[in-house]
Structures are given as C-alpha cells and as structure tokens.
C-alpha cells in the first residue's frame, strides 16, 4: 500500500543524476515520494560489481530500480539479483533515446517491438515478487502514437505489470540528440489521459515537462501519478512541499541547518568508505536557487569539493554564506 501511494508523485530516473547520494538527499526533503535509480543495464548487473551498482541506504525507501535491456533471460536474472537488495519496485526502461542505449537495442527503440517488451516484462514479473513497471514513450519516429502506445500498453498489461509510466513525448531516434528529445518533440498529455481512460484498472503515470507542483497536481484528475525529473533535481527545495500537497501530511518548514548537518554526516561516512565529497555535494548545488547567498553556495561547493583536502566541513562553510546572504537581505 505504501508503494501504491508513493507512485502518486515520484522523482524520475535520470542517468548520471539519480544515484544513491542524490536519492539520500532527496529523501531528506520528501518522506513519501517514490525515488528512482538511474537506469542500470542488465548486463552490468550480471557481469559487474552488483554491490556498487545496487546497494543503497535504507533511508531511501520507497525506492525503485530502473533496468535497461532487451533479453528476457538476462532481465529475469538481473531482477532476481536486484530483488535481494530490497528494492520496492523494478522498472523496465522503454523510453531512453540515447545512442548508447540504441546500440544495445533497448530503451526507446523497443517501442517498435511491443511483443518483445511483453516477453521481457513477463520474465521480470515471473522472476520475483517485487512489483514490475514499465516506462515508455508515446512512440518513436514516424509511429502513430495512438497505435504504438496502445500496443505497448497491451503487451505490458498482458505480462502482469503493476503500472505504466508514460513520457508524454515521442522519441525521435533519427535526427535528434538525446538532449533535443527532452524538448523538441511536442508534449501530448491528452494521449496519456486517453490511455488511462482505456485502462481504468491499471496504474498509469505521466512524465515529461512537469516543472511545478501545481502542474503535477493538475494532472492527477486524469492519471494515477506524476513523475517530475529535471525540475526536481535542479530546484530540489520544491520537494519539501510534496508530502503535504500529494500525500495529505501536515505542511512543514524545512530546517536547513539540520539538513546540512545530516548531509555533512552522510558525506563523512561516504568519505570514510573511500568516496569523494563531490559525489555527494554535486547533487546539492541547486538547493538554494533564488535565495540570498545561492550564488556563493554554488561557488563554494563547485570549486571546493574538488580540492584534495575537501571535507564535509565545506557544506557548513557554504551554508554559512547562505546565512550571511539571508541576513544581509533582511537588514536591507
């Protein structure tokens, strides 16, 4: 039940961004939202360092793992391995348009092969009791979004998925870069709404172009959940209001001083295990966007975290600059 509720608002899987340090930070801002890992390729799980790829802090719950791949057997085996780490959900990526993903014949190009997607999802569902979902596009290139999305959704439902997340854009694999695919193909929320109307008993969530919590709330009469990506990462303080606005909890004001202390302690533990400060602080750069002292905060973290002697104290130093900026504005 907690997972079903958590899908009401989630932070999207983003390659190179939503790693375990990002998710620990985001969890300090929202207790209830579902957090996603960046996409991890099934082959990497099977042949690489599974602990490094899959281990996470228990504080991150509820947390979902996104897997990339197109081989049902490999995906089933990767799902079994991932299940042992305690994820709340496992999601198959059928939406990423990057060249690297296309060369592996998975991601958005799988929109052209709904029967294979169904086989992959069925293998994943059969491999573990953990709920399996899929994240897809409206279609790719010249596909008709009505037909392409319905065929993919039908295959997913037949495979027994627990939900379908739809990035409400086509992916143009010919002629557009992955970055351009985030903005140039037009959004079509109505197409996702029609999918939900057709599948009233299936969880259907919407992703793509959602920049504010008000925009997210406006979608909930039409779909079961909303996923926010870059806006949540670049201005993470907005996550503070998620629990009140989407999960019915009492509004709260964030104690930034306490947050910085928690993150400094987390960074210290990470560094004691051989990690680097910048691996944690890079996800916190946008925390004070629009606030007095934000520029100095970004400067201190961006420049200081790469120094050989950089330690968790840098977070306290950067936060002191925010406090000075806030005090100066109040006195003006």
From TrEMBL:
<dbReference type="InterPro" id="IPR035587">
    <property type="entry name" value="DUS-like_FMN-bd"/>
</dbReference>
<keyword id="KW-0820">tRNA-binding</keyword>
<feature type="binding site">
    <location>
        <position position="135"/>
    </location>
    <ligand>
        <name>FMN</name>
    </ligand>
</feature>
<feature type="active site" description="Proton donor">
    <location>
        <position position="96"/>
    </location>
</feature>
<feature type="binding site">
    <location>
        <begin position="229"/>
        <end position="230"/>
    </location>
    <ligand>
        <name>FMN</name>
    </ligand>
</feature>
<feature type="binding site">
    <location>
        <position position="66"/>
    </location>
    <ligand>
        <name>FMN</name>
    </ligand>
</feature>
<keyword id="KW-0288">FMN</keyword>
<dbReference type="InterPro" id="IPR004653">
    <property type="entry name" value="DusA"/>
</dbReference>
<feature type="binding site">
    <location>
        <begin position="207"/>
        <end position="209"/>
    </location>
    <ligand>
        <name>FMN</name>
    </ligand>
</feature>
<feature type="site" description="Interacts with tRNA">
    <location>
        <position position="182"/>
    </location>
</feature>
<dbReference type="InterPro" id="IPR018517">
    <property type="entry name" value="tRNA_hU_synthase_CS"/>
</dbReference>
<comment type="similarity">
    <text>Belongs to the Dus family. DusA subfamily.</text>
</comment>
<comment type="function">
    <text>Catalyzes the synthesis of 5,6-dihydrouridine (D), a modified base found in the D-loop of most tRNAs, via the reduction of the C5-C6 double bond in target uridines. Specifically modifies U20 and U20a in tRNAs.</text>
</comment>
<feature type="site" description="Interacts with tRNA; defines subfamily-specific binding signature">
    <location>
        <position position="295"/>
    </location>
</feature>
<feature type="binding site">
    <location>
        <position position="167"/>
    </location>
    <ligand>
        <name>FMN</name>
    </ligand>
</feature>
<dbReference type="GO" id="GO:0050660">
    <property type="term" value="F:flavin adenine dinucleotide binding"/>
</dbReference>
<feature type="domain" description="DUS-like FMN-binding">
    <location>
        <begin position="11"/>
        <end position="315"/>
    </location>
</feature>
<keyword id="KW-0560">Oxidoreductase</keyword>
<comment type="similarity">
    <text>Belongs to the dus family.</text>
</comment>
<keyword id="KW-0547">Nucleotide-binding</keyword>
<feature type="site" description="Interacts with tRNA; defines subfamily-specific binding signature">
    <location>
        <position position="179"/>
    </location>
</feature>
<feature type="site" description="Interacts with tRNA; defines subfamily-specific binding signature">
    <location>
        <position position="298"/>
    </location>
</feature>
<protein>
    <recommendedName>
        <fullName>tRNA-dihydrouridine(20/20a) synthase</fullName>
        <ecNumber>1.3.1.91</ecNumber>
    </recommendedName>
</protein>
<feature type="site" description="Interacts with tRNA">
    <location>
        <position position="93"/>
    </location>
</feature>
<dbReference type="GO" id="GO:0010181">
    <property type="term" value="F:FMN binding"/>
</dbReference>
<keyword id="KW-0521">NADP</keyword>
<dbReference type="GO" id="GO:0000049">
    <property type="term" value="F:tRNA binding"/>
</dbReference>
<keyword id="KW-0694">RNA-binding</keyword>
<dbReference type="InterPro" id="IPR013785">
    <property type="entry name" value="Aldolase_TIM"/>
</dbReference>
<dbReference type="GO" id="GO:0102264">
    <property type="term" value="F:tRNA-dihydrouridine20 synthase activity"/>
</dbReference>
<keyword id="KW-0819">tRNA processing</keyword>
<dbReference type="InterPro" id="IPR001269">
    <property type="entry name" value="DUS_fam"/>
</dbReference>
<dbReference type="Pfam" id="PF01207">
    <property type="entry name" value="Dus"/>
</dbReference>
<keyword id="KW-0285">Flavoprotein</keyword>
């Amino acid at each position: 039940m907690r997972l079903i509720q958590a899908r009401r608002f989630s932070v999207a899987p983003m390659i190179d961004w939503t790693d375990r340090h990002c998710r620990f930070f985001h969890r300090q801002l929202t207790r209830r939202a579902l957090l996603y890992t960046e996409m991890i390729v099934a082959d990497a799980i099977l042949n690489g360092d599974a602990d490094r790829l899959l281990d996470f802090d228990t504080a991150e719950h509820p947390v979902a793992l996104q897997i990339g791949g197109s081989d049902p057997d490999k995906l089933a085996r990767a799902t079994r391995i991932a299940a042992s780490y305690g994820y709340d959900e496992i999601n198959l990526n059928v939406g990423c348009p990057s060249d690297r993903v296309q060369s592996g014949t998975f991601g958005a190009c799988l929109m052209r092969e709904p029967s294979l997607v169904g086989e992959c999802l069925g293998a994943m569902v059969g491999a573990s009791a953990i709920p399996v979902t899929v994240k897809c596009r409206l279609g790719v290139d010249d596909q008709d979004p009505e037909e392409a999305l319905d065929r993919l959704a039908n295959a997913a439902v037949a495979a027994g998925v627990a939900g379908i997340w739809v990035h409400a854009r086509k992916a143009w694999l010919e002629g557009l870069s992955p970055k351009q695919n985030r903005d140039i193909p037009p959004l079509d929320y109505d197409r996702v709404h029609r999918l939900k109307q057709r599948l009233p008993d299936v969880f259907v969530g919407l992703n793509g172009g959602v920049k504010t919590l008000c925009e997210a709330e406006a979608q909930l009469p039409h779909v079961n959940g909303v996923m926010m990506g870059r806006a949540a990462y670049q201005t993470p303080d907005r996550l503070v209001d998620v629990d009140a606005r989407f999960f019915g909890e009492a509004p709260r004001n964030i104690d930034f001083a306490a947050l910085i202390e928690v993150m400094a302690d987390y960074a210290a533990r990470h560094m004691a295990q051989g990690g680097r400060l910048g691996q944690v602080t890079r996800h916190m750069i946008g925390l004070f966007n629009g606030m007095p002292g934000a520029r100095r905060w970004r400067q201190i973290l961006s420049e200081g975290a790469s120094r050989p002697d950089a330690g968790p104290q840098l977070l306290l130093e950067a936060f002191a600059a925010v406090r000075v900026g806030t005090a100066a504005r109040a006195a003006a």
